[in-house]
Amino acid sequence: MAYKVAFISLGCAKNLVNTEQMMALCRKAGYEVTGEPEGADVAVLNTCGFIESAKSEAIEHIIELGQLKTQGKLKKLLVTGCLTQRYSDDIRAELPEADGMLGTGSYTDVVEAIEELMAGEKAEHFGNIHHTFEDGERMVTTPPYTAYLKIAEGCSNGCAFCIIPKLRGRYRSRTMESLLAEAKKLADSGVQELIVIAQDITRYGEDLKDGTTLAKLLDELCKLPFHWIRLHYLYPEAVTDELIETIAHQHKVLHYLDIPIQHCNDDILKAMHRRSTKQEIIDLFAKLRAAMPDVVIRTSLICGLPGEGEKEFEELCQFLEEQRIQRAGVFQFSPEEGTLAAKMENQVDPDVAQRRVELVVDLQSRIMDAYNEERLGTVMEVLCEGFDSTEGCYVGRTYADSVDIDGRVLFTAAGLVPAGTFVNVRIVETSDGDLIGEIEE
What we know:
Elements: E1 4-9, H1 13-28, E2 32-34, E3 40-47, H2 52-70, E4 74-81, H3 82-94, E5 100-102, H4 110-118, E6 123-125, E7 146-150, E8 152-153, H5 164-168, E9 172-173, H6 176-188, E10 193-197, H7 214-221, E11 228-232, H8 241-249, E12 253-258, H9 266-271, H10 278-291, E13 296-303, H11 310-323, E14 327-332, H12 350-375, E15 379-388, E16 393-397, E17 409-412, E18 422-431, E19 434-439
Parallel strand pairs: 1-2, 1-3, 3-4, 4-5, 5-6, 7-10, 10-11, 11-12, 12-13, 13-14, 17-19
Antiparallel strand pairs: 8-9, 15-16, 15-18, 16-17, 18-19
Helix pairs in contact: 7-8, 11-12
């Protein structure tokens, strides 16, 4: 049967790639693939189950899709991803809206599961999370000029606050051969900005034990006709001199580095099971800035980990003032069951942790405003993402702005600027984290 299957992807870009793989499998099976669940035979909801807010969002979607079923506008709901891997028993007991489940080891079973559901059978597939197939076709859903390349699955870092290794399995790199074949298809389709992703891209190749490294992969990717190659996420202790040299000298690799440090206090870093000290982070940032004076560093920070007192928090704020990291995602510690940090003593009051998040966000927004002020009068290369009718101008991003998480450039132009075009924009103003400019003819 040619069923109509709707896909909804929640969570991170790594999850989106899995959704795109499931979409391609369904298309290959002859199904009609859509993003609109109303009127579909099956809705496939690919969930995130990383932290409390992600769980809540996934549950809300399950309930909403269940209401569509009640109204006769949807026949079946298949829930996939991290939430099902983590809470399959709870979903069975408390969310009857879900007709079937796929764990993170079973994305490739999506067609079989849909057939089972439509035949009135139970569909539950939970394969081995340490051995998944990552090289399949994808139905790319990002704009035609931007695409993700997931170079590894899983994580073996074992941070005390993080559940991901239990949901995604141990770290496993894809082969260079499979990645370059996929990257070539993306380049041939017109992709201009390739975003290299994994839970930790810096450890790419370590498990292959054949001399493969991220630096060598980037050298090969730079031979393809991409304009920009962007990197997410680099763990500080695994950034090698070879990698810094490659990023500094391969002009396609953007000097935008997403390096999640989480904190700077040595005791907190140790409690987190992180492998860097404060001094090592400072030395790395200094080395990166010496090699690339225009480098923009993005990081992730956690406030309120057990044991973080006022002294440790003050140290973090002072570190951020001194380091002037231009981009930061700031998160309140979430005591996730199954993690070491959830059982630690000296838990921080959630209201205190929330207040610390607000203080760091405020501090970081001032640093970002100062960075934007320094752009005034300069000409920056901008990837145009189209015309925004509400703003009345074109919208795009510079090398310093990744998709959906950083600022934008709003700019005017005398002529038509198609989405996916690179243009030079003179920055004349700043506004709430965005830059405003005009095309330099």
